[in-house]
Amino acid sequence: MARRTPRDWLVDGLLFLLSLAWAVLAFGDSLGPEPEMALNAGPSWLNEVDLVLGVWASTALWLRRRWPVGLAVVTLPLILFSVSASVALVVILFTVLVHRPLPVAAALTAVHLLSSPVFLAVRPDPAMPYWASVAFTVLVIGVIVAWALFVRARRQLVLSLRERADRAEAEQQLRVAQARQLERTRIAREMHDVLAHRISLLSLHAGALEFRPDAPAEEVAKAAGVIRASAHAALQDLREVIGVLRAESGAAETATPERPQPTLGDLPALVAESRAAGVRVGVVDAVADAAAVPAAVGRSAYRIVQEGLTNARKHAPGALVSVQLAGRPGDGLAVEIRNPWPVGEPPAPAIPGTGTGLVGVAERVSLAGGRLEHGRDATGDFRLAAWLPWPAS
Q1: TM segments (predicted)?
Q2: Is 369 exposed, middle or buried (0-12, 13-18, 19+ CB in 10 A)?
Q3: Of 98, 127, 156, the domain-final residue
Q4: pLDDT grade, residue 34 (50/70/90)?
């Protein structure tokens, strides 16, 4: 049982005092000048026993929160003759009606109703005919039952609303946690694409310096500058993603804004960066209106091309990479990256990778509602092709 609150102690104390005061009042009435007109008219010994039972029932009210049904069963004999315990019996009945299952409460109410004629026969009301007293007693019990059922319904409604509010709050917290996790996953996927691209460029420039130690000083300085810039950008990207993934709950509001995401208009710069690193890239751009491509579709196309160029630099160094784009509103946007399958062993150590680049591309295309194909085709080339939806309006 839950520990009593200050309000519970106050209510229980008031009910105890009320029941005890009624027991003393009923016994005092029997000692008046007209005992035959008292509330508990009857033999003096019965009134004394009734007083003791009334005090005992009043004291037992402190147990009604823990054992209401057991207390109701123990005090059942008192409903046949006791006047001093009337208030305590009403409180016990009320408690069972409010807090216990309806079948148990209905059975206890039926016992009270059926015992009313017996009680009035033992303790007749001197101011009212017998059947009128029975009807009045039944009416009082009915009012008590109605009041208890009203309190029961109100309590259940409050509990239901509280549970619904708690459930809604828990669901809201779950949605926030899921949204945060999805956002972190998205950022991690973006950073994977960016870092893989930058580090592969850095590796190519470093490899050129390694295999051409006799290059002119201007070329060496230029390559070193590109390596420095690529390393700086890679570290900056890495710092951002680590900061996001380490952010604690609620830190999203104070996080710094993300840098602008690439679109289809940034593809020429991506291709130029790869060409500057020595990658031979051929581009066929047949997009009807590149400016009209939605930002999300253009970003996905950019990442697909970026991953294709990165894979070509890793696995087919020196090969000619073909990039083709075509599409129009309503028909969708088609992206294809193709390069010859590498022959023999690469001349330099392979660039390490996580092996999840194509997995991330597939997830990105799937989320966009598109299709992805990759692998070796009938001509022996490696082909990475994707179709992305481009709404007509």
Answers
A1: 44-63, 70-98, 104-122, 129-150
A2: exposed
A3: 127
A4: low
